[in-house]
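Input/output pair, single chain:
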Amino acid sequence: MTYSEKIRNKIILLSRNKKTLLTILSDLIIFNLNFFISYLLLNFFYTNNLVSFRQDFKNFSFLYTFENFEIILLSTVSILFIFILDGYKSFFRSSGILNILGTSRILSLLVFCFLSYFFVLGKVEVYIVSFQVASVQFLTTLFYFLFFRVSVYVYLSNKSVTGTIPTIIYGAGQAGRETAAALTQTKKYRILGFIDDDRRLKNFQIMGIKVLGNLNKITKLKKAYPDLLIIMAIQNISSFDRQRIISLIEPLEVTVKTIPSSYGDLETRLSIENIGLGDLIERESTGLGENTKYEKNIKDKNILITGAGGSIGSELSKQISELNPAKLVFIDSSEYNLYKLSQKLKNLKGIDSFAFILKSIQDKDDLESIIRSESIDTIFHAAAYKHVPLLENSVNLKSALENNFFQLLIFVKLHINIK
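Output:
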């Protein structure tokens, strides 16, 4: 993150009171800029020669004659007028010129110039001169306001470098730090900061990246970065807590991704994934790893999974791959499903021992060859038809029996014979 981006993010994340104070200071400077310029010109360019100064800048030179109390009165009334008209309740909420400048600021400028007109009139008692001075005040100050506020708007709206995604990492722990380290190696993501529920971490710097605070900060960042991405990088988190966090983020209407749920067990590579259905539904899932009976038939064993790319088979494949099998062989008759499975598991560290085979399980000889050549110890048969109402139809009954019953029987006999 560049120094300019750090300043921009710092301004965006300022509290409302601090933003209001900065805006008031900028308004005060702009309202009084002409007085400062007239003083600068007379003292440094005309060496206090008011006659020459007035000849060159007839209307502008009258600003030098304003007393300090008059300038203070003009500034105070103008700022109060903006306050009364709620001019400090919003900060660049839309890109229109009128909205950037604000109706309250335009009206306040009119009051400022109107009072200037009477102050000049009291000095020269010439209406046309007073009007000309007030007009110069209005036009130049309006230009200052437009130039400054449009510049600030463009600066604060310059949210991302082309092709990068403004990113917040949820979780400032070990997984969050490793995620940040990985993301900094690519130009695709631009890390704005960490979000963490631990209040003690707020304002800490981790790898040069600031912990911005809790979820409340995301609302402000969303306004400045409409395409904001949140990456959940928390290890050892329960399904309930994961769903709770997602439910809190959901109203913010931001994109949410996550690191693998199994990341941290030294068997899973870091990757950025979309959240899954299990992250959204309110139920506790039961994994194979929670049953020692399954684990003893998987760990350090050669496993064959049929129908591996299907809805049940793919989840089964994912859970089995996390239980340290010696080898995994995935069979599916659908090229697309098999490809999706390979992409889903590509970040697992044991990917080199995985075999993805495109084949129908109806071919008994090929199945026997695979079981023998791969020295399969355990078979998980998920290539079954599962839509019961459809299978109960007399037209589909034969196919259901062949696939779900007889094919399973073939697998059992093959495995017994080989063993």
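The two ends are 60 Å apart (CA to CA). Residues 127-157 form the longest helix (31 residues).
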